[in-house]
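question for whoever is on the cluster today: can someone run the full assembly for these? two chains, 308 residues total. i dont have access anymore since they changed the login thing
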Amino acid sequence: MKWGSFSAFLHMGGYAFYVWSSFGLSFALFAIELLLLSKRRRTLLKRLGQIQRLNASRESK
Amino acid sequence: MGKINWYKYASPASFYGLAGKLIPGFATLSVVLFIIGLYISFFVAPTDAQQGEAYRIIFIHVPAAWMSMFIYVVMAAYSGIGLAFNTRLSAMMASSLAPTGALFAAIALFTGSFWGKPMWGAWWVWDARLTSQLILFFLYVGYISLQAAIDDPRRSDRASALIALVGVVNVPIIYFSVKWWNTLHQGASISFTKAPTMAYTMVAGMLIMAAACWMYTIAVALYRVRIIILERERHSVWVSELMEKIK
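^ ran it for u. tokens below:
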């Protein structure tokens, strides 16, 4: 193991704030992009489904 | 040679299905490569003699900066093809890539800040490399806002394709800025002409993280282009047939 202990790993040789902010924010942004995308898809499918049902009910009349 | 009809996949309807099949593979590859890449970044790569552990920011900073430039070039190429041949799908691919490109440009900028502060003593300097990268971010933002501002997709594709094509001159400026100007930013980490000066494991970590970002980008771009296809083709017969199946 490169790091003597877990706290040494977290400490990052005194640069903990800079290193963990860089990686933490980057992966948080990836997660946000994925969440927003799946939300956009779900909303779209719901809307398309509503249009579908509307058209179907119109045709049956 | 087997006859695969590639033109078939130029139609949004068949590409929608193909993209759906490809996404899980690219997503899995991305996760695996990120795990390996992060492991090398934090547990294999040695401590830097000059910068201590702070240099580890390089493993996300450089791949993100590369991606922001590559994606812009690919986006400009798709825009150019869309403009020249009036192909619907290439314009959709271009607009699908833009948000992820903007994301990587932003990551390159703020991780650079988090690296610059402990090493240079400044969050930001108006150095040629940093300034041209900031312009790249604004080009992405401009592209996305212009697309959002024009309702007719055909017209918004054409207008934003112009931004993409004009802005592409900025990419070589970013890349060569550290050579052309006397910048505070260090030179290229990996050169095509010289053997790497960094430790082998550092190079490997960076390349694997870059590959992980590539797979992430492809998976996300395919996912987003499927949404764009459905949005734009919602009045077509195939979409209502698809919705019939989902129900």
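summary bc i know u wont read the tokens: Chain B has a mean pLDDT of 90. Chain B has one domain: 21-188+196-246.
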